[in-house]
Amino acid sequence: MDGEGFPSGRPALVEAEDLWLTVPARPSGVNPKGDPHGGQGAGGGLDILSGVSLRVGEGEAVGIVGPSGSGKTSLLMLLAGLERPTRGRVRIAGTVLGELDENALARFRRRTTGIVFQSFQLIPTMTALENVLVPLELAGRADGAAAATAALAAVGLDRRLGHLPTELSGGEQQRVALARAFVTRPRLLLADEPTGNLDTRTGESVMTLMFSLQQQYGTTLVLITHDPALAARCDRRLHVRDGRVTTDHPLRQDGP
Ligand SMILES: Nc1ncnc2c1ncn2[C@@H]1O[C@H](COP(=O)(O)OP(=O)(O)OP(=O)(O)O)[C@@H](O)[C@H]1O
């Protein structure tokens, strides 16, 4: 795969090769997502992902779209190294995640990857500043307070440092989550429906901020979204259906 060209001509930061994710067909307990749509894998397992390969260039923004239950979040979890594939390989910035033990994987993730969720996932007992400090403290950074304050200023929240998540609006909470994700300047940002809990206008302004920071820092972005307008702001769009990538549209190259 090395040296292979991209539509964008950029070297690959994310390389996923033939990813399979198979879970027991009858997991214990209730499946919160209802009936799974995947196919039956070998040995009666259920294939959530069936041979997904993708490459994302350094600094590129890729939108992942597809129906509910098609495997988008599962794919993101594999790229984050939060879940391991049943088969296949994820390589981020030249590091094969499957070759790392849990501790090394956690260190790698802290250094390389930022994640933004639909439900913000802020720690409710911590202020905005304390939430943004968490990844810096885990990384052993001595300049934590100054860096966290600057990151919150970059998302327009320098007057909300001491507020708890419950004292912030949804849009403000997602901006804190963006500050927390960007504060370590990760090379890769993974975002799972980041506007899903926001009204249209708030979502748009938070996404404008996200794309602006992504471009300013040259961050590679993989963004799951149901919103076609948001997907259209990405350089490329991958369509996931029944655990497979079905189409890969280069958007900007095609023009409007
Ligand atoms: N650990 C698991 N055990 C059993 N089934 C699972 C597991 N993880 C995911 N699934 C199933 O895999 C399928 C894909 O889930 P996933 O969350 O990746 O879909 P999605 O495309 O992100 O959906 P949505 O857009 O609704 O968030 C779903 O049917 C889900 O129920």
Automatic annotation (TrEMBL):
Gene3D superfamilies according to UniProt: P-loop containing nucleotide triphosphate hydrolases
**Does the keyword field hold Cell membrane?**
yes
A Gene Ontology cellular-component term: membrane protein complex
Keyword check for Transport: yes
Name the Pfam families for this protein: ABC_tran
**Residues of the ABC transporter domain:** 14-255
Which GO terms label this protein's molecular function in UniProt? ATP binding; ATP hydrolysis activity; transmembrane transporter activity
- Which keywords does the record carry? ATP-binding, Cell inner membrane, Cell membrane, Membrane, Nucleotide-binding, Transport
InterPro entries attached here? AAA+_ATPase (IPR003593), ABC_transporter-like_ATP-bd (IPR003439), ABC_transporter-like_CS (IPR017871), ABC_transpr_LolD-like (IPR015854), MacB-like_ATP-bd (IPR017911), P-loop_NTPase (IPR027417)
Q: Which family does it belong to?
A: Belongs to the ABC transporter superfamily. Macrolide exporter (TC 3.A.1.122) family.
Q: What is this protein called?
A: ABC transporter ATP-binding protein
